[in-house]
Structure to design on (258 residues):
């Protein structure tokens, strides 16, 4: 687990109800149970601040960092997708975005990841599609140094759904019960402190589930196979996350008080 990704999880899953901020010392303590050392946390904080995700502040007279408005918007959107119980309502239209990628190879790679995260897939070279409007899309493309033009379509050939690897995604969802059970049992057995154990288990659970946001566009139910395994997988995730939350919240409160 990378420190930067773990910090996004901390701010998105634990600090949204706590003014989106925490002392640096608390951030270090929160990531210790999942195996991330203090130097890695400090480096990740500095990089996220330079990238516009965090900004320095004082928390109870101690040096800390709070999420920027841009980060809060992204984290709120991610939380809505992580804990969504059913697909979004679809109006039957496909949103097409004609993307001119930036010249820098690293920027191109990051933009492709961002587009996938926003639920887009490449239908044809330079043509990305999504069943839903994503208001932040233009800002994401512009920040990466690219350009975007838009269109809307009702029918497309080939079938737009084939732009996503639904077979591979279904296999990942089918394997989720075993993955979730293994990581939760491992973390609960690894820590003597019950609250710390629950925090670590829930943290790993959410972190692993969050990976689906980069692979699953959240297609409308009418476009998915009848026996789509994403629903049962989401129900299992939600149930386990809810079960672990009370003790996990107590551990977070302890770290913030300290």
């Amino acid at each position: 687990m990378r420190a930067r990704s773990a910090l996004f999880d901390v701010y998105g899953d634990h600090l949204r109800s706590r003014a989106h901020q925490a002392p640096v010392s608390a951030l270090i303590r929160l990531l210790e149970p999942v195996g991330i050392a203090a130097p890695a946390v400090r480096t990740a904080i500095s990089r996220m601040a330079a990238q516009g995700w965090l900004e320095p502040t004082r928390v109870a007279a101690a040096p800390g960092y709070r999420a920027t408005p841009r980060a809060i918007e992204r984290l709120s959107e991610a939380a809505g997708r992580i804990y969504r119980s059913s697909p979004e309502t679809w109006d039957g239209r496909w949103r097409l975005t004609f993307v001119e990628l930036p010249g820098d190879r690293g920027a191109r790679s990051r933009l492709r990841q961002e587009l996938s995260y926003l639920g887009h897939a490449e239908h044809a070279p330079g043509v990305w599609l999504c069943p839903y409007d994503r208001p932040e899309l233009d800002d994401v493309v512009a920040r990466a140094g690219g350009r975007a033009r838009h269109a809307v379509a009702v029918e497309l050939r080939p079938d737009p759904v084939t732009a996503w690897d639904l077979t591979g995604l279904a296999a990942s969802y089918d394997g989720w019960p075993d993955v979730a059970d293994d990581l939760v049992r491992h973390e609960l057995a690894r820590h003597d402190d019950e609250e710390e154990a629950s925090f670590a288990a829930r943290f790993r659970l959410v972190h692993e589930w969050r990976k689906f946001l980069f692979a699953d566009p959240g297609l409308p139910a009418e476009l998915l196979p009848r026996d789509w395994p994403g629903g049962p997988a989401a129900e299992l995730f939600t149930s386990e996350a809810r079960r672990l939350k009370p003790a996990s919240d107590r551990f977070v409160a302890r770290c913030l008080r300290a």
The longest strand covers residues 94-100. The chain has three domains: 3-74, 94-153, 165-257. The longest helix spans residues 230-257. The beta strands are 21-23, 54-59, 62-67, 94-100, 121-124, 127-130, 147-153.
